[in-house]
Amino acid sequence: MAKGSMAVLVACLVLAVHVGLGLFAATWLWSATDDDPRQWMYFYGTGGCCISPITASVGAFLVNNPRFKPAGIGMLVGLAVALAAAAVAMLIGYSPSWATG
After folding, report:
1. Does residue 26 register a pLDDT over 90?
2. What is the mean pLDDT of residues 60-77?
3. Is the pLDDT of residue 19 over 90?
4. What is the mean pLDDT of residues 17-42?
5. I want to staple 95 with a disulfide (CB 3.0 to 4.6 A). Which of 12, 37, 69, 101 is the partner?
6. With left for phi above 0 and alpha for psi between -120 and 50, is residue 21 left, alpha or beta?
7. How confident is the model at residue 3, as a pLDDT?
8. Secondary structure, 3-state, the chain
9. CA 59 – CA 33 distance, rounded (Å)
10. Could you tell me if 29 and 3 are in contact, meaning their C-beta atoms sit under 8 angstroms apart?
11. Residue 100 contacts by C-beta under 8 Å, 6 or more apart in sequence?
C-alpha cells in the first residue's frame, strides 16, 4: 500500500471513530423531555473529543517512527478534521432536525 493511501485510510478511520463516538454519546445522553436542543451538540462535542488526547498522543508517537509515519500523519489529519467539524457545528449552533422539532 502506498504511503499516501495509508495516510488517507487512517485519516478516514480516525474521523469515523470520532464522529461515531460523538453521535453515540449525543444520542445516548440527550433526552427530548429534559434537555434543550443545543445540549445535543454539547454532548456530541464532548463525546467525540474525549478521546482526542489519546489519538493525538498515538499519532505523534507514530509520526516519530519512520515505519509508521504515514499512519501517524493520517491520525493527526483525521483528528484535526473531526475537531474542526465539531467546532464549526458548535459555532453555527447546529442541532439535528429531530432534536429541534
Report:
1. no
2. 93
3. no
4. 81
5. 37
6. alpha
7. 66
8. CCHHHHHHHHHHHHHHHHHHHHHHHHHHHCCCCCCCHHHHHHHHHHHHHCCHHHHHHHHHHHHCCHHHHHHHHHHHHHHHHHHHHHHHHHHCCCCCHHHHC
9. 40
10. no
11. 37
Asked if 65 and 55 touch (Cβ cutoff 8 Å), the reply is: no
Comparing 100 with 65, the larger pLDDT belongs to 65
* Burial zone of 82 (CB within 10 Å; 0-12 exposed, 13-18 middle, 19+ buried): buried
Residue 90: CB partners within 8 Å, gap ≥ 6?
A: 41, 42, 45
CA–CA distance, 30 with 45 (Å, rounded to integer): 12
